[in-house]
Amino acid sequence: MFERFTKDARAVVQGAAEHAEETRAQTVEAEHLLLALLDREGSRASFALAALGVGGSREAVRRDLAEARRRAGLTRAETEALAGLGIDVSEIVARVEETHGVGAMSGHQRGRRWWSGHRAFGKGAKGVLEQSLRVALARQDRHIGDEHILLALTVRPGVPSEVLADHGVTHESLSAVLGSGSGRGTGEACA
């Protein structure tokens, strides 16, 4: 499948791995793909994000992702469901952080030496990349671009889609900005 990725899409995948490395995450996850997309400039996804008003609020998106990471990656819906059972996630996070430090529930290895090789892709990131192929096929595009990864993030449940929706980026709004697909491909593929 990777041979179908454009240069921009490959850069997103590589950037996601770098974000995982920087934060010492055990695996590359969907949030790392979103962070890498936020880093991009001059690509279809970056233009779509700018058109939807995210261009100036990229730091706010990053903060929202970091806050979700502090909650161990739970979405607001999951947090509310737990609250309905009498479980206060904020209280749990506060107690864990009091004992183990801020960000202890993030799933990242803080202060510990971690192997500095290639990170495996977690279930969420793999799912997004597989969904990006389905999105490209549905749009009749021959290659998978970074815009397909962004579209895939909006349709997969989880923190990245929730954070994007909070900033006005939904599958519907992205589809409107990007159009219906070209049928000709989305840019130059790299062999």
UniProtKB/TrEMBL annotation:
Provide the Clp R domain boundaries.
2-186
The answer to whether UniProt assigns keyword Repeat to this entry is yes
Question: What keywords were assigned to this record?
Answer: Repeat
For this protein, the record's InterPro entries field holds: Clp_N_dom_sf (IPR036628), Clp_R_N (IPR004176)
Name the record gives this protein:
Peptidase
At the highest ranks, the source species' classification is:
Bacteria, Bacillati, Actinomycetota, Actinomycetes, Kitasatosporales
Q: Which domain of life is it from?
A: Bacteria
Q: Does the keyword Repeat apply?
A: yes
| Species per Swiss-Prot/TrEMBL record | Streptomyces ambofaciens
